Each structure stands twice: as C-alpha cells, then as structure tokens.
Hints:
Blueprint (H helix, E strand, L loop, with lengths): L5 H10 L22 H8 L3 H8 L8 H10 L4 H11 L12 H8 L7 E4 L5 E4 L1 H6 L9 H7 L3 H4 L3 H16 L6 H13 L1 H7 L9 E8 L3 E11 L7 E6 L5 H10 L1
Antiparallel strand pairs: 1-2, 1-5, 3-4, 4-5
Helix pairs in contact: 2-3, 2-4, 4-5, 8-10, 11-12
Amino acid sequence: MTKPGALAEFLRARRALVRPEQVGLIPGAARQVPGLRREEVAMSAGVSTDYYVHLEQGREKRPSTQVLDALARALRLDYDAHTYLRALAAPSRPAPKAHGNTHRTLTGLLPQITTPAMLVTPWLEVIARNGPADALYDGIPLRDNLARMAFLDDAVTRFVEDPDQLAQCTVATLRAAAGPRPHAPQMIELIGELSLRSGKFRQMWARHDIHRKGSAVKHFRHPVVGPLTLYQHVMTLPDHPESQLWIYQAEPGSDSEHALGVLAA
C-alpha cells in the first residue's frame, strides 16, 4: 500500500521547487519561503486554501482527477511527475504476477543481442547482461547496481560525460519506481543505504523529482575505445513488471558503432 502521507510529502516538496516568478508572481521582500506559499498554489489550482492545506497535512487523501490536474499545472509538473501524482492519489493495486519462465527466457535471449543489453530491476540491480554490455561497463566496481554506481563509485566520474546528470536521472528513476507501488525490500534497503552514505543522494531524494525510463542519448568515456554516444532504449516487460530490458545502440556508420564492434569482439 502507499505509505501514509506520500501525497502530502510530494506536494510539499514540489511546491518548494516552484519560484513565484515562474508563475507570474512578484516574490516581494517579506517572503520567507523560496517556493510558492500554500495559498498561492491553491489560488493557481482553483481550490480553497483550507482544502489545499488539508492535502499537504495528509488529512485529505483522495482528491478528484480534476483537482490533481489543476495542481499539476500549478506546480509545473511534467508528464512523468503528473502521472506519479495521479498514482499517489489512486487506490493501490497489486502488481500482476509474473510468469515463472519469463526471466529465464529473457536471460537466454541476451547473448543473441549484438549490442549491449541488460535486464534491470526497478531498484536498478542488473540481473543479467550480455557480452557487449559486460565490456561496456568493464572497470566499474559497483556496476551490478546502477544506483550505487551513480552515487558511491568514484570510477563513474571517468566513465560518463556528465556524472551530475546521471545522478539526477538515477534518483528520479528510483523515486518513480518506489512511489505508489508496494515497496520491495530491496528498494527500501537501497534507498536507506544511499541515504546514509551519500549526502548528494539525500538532497536529490528530497526534491521528489520523477523520471520514467524510456529512450535517451547517453555519452560514455570508455577506457579502451574512448568516447561513445549511444541510444539507450528501456522497455518494461508487461508480463514481468519487475524487470526491464535495457538496450544500447549506436548510430549506423558512426565511430561509436565501430567502437561497439571492438568491444563486442
């Protein structure tokens, strides 16, 4: 079940990130908070201040879809964060049971894929990878969990072009995965470990940024083949929701495609 107060916590965190000037307000010299005031969010969303205060206090947990959409506009939420907000206010539903042989079938499929490919859990643990992916992440000590790699592995600063962007994407991906669905013990353990060991993670986690993996361009600095620009495609598996298939692909005819060929060999 969604933990008590998750909706309220999310609203408080996101309100603090919106500057008055972003929504056409004049901050004024007497303002004591960097973000919006509660009454300003309520006014922008077209609800009463008392009602919005009840939402932030956790006393109102089931706002209508219309109210949620209005709050998303007032808080300037993007599509992922808007979807997440709706999910926080909806009744929890048990995840569908996975077919027992799916994971085994996909693990057997990985060696047939000629570009880097991995099976990854919502808590960013790498279940399995093929040979090219093994070569891509070679030399990264904490590569078996991509969140630990992003925040606890010094080697990542030499491996990716923008470590800060990787950290932001990683924590927002974890937040989206951990949100309204039942919390897997592995997810709770990982978030606790990163919160204790990384001040950077604690700061980013408190922002409640949301990002759902899809397709993106990734820039690597590999110690053997040099710079790599790869298209990352992340596919969630309908019959096995606790696994995602991550595939990296280079532009045909590019230097990165040649470099991947070297790694695959």
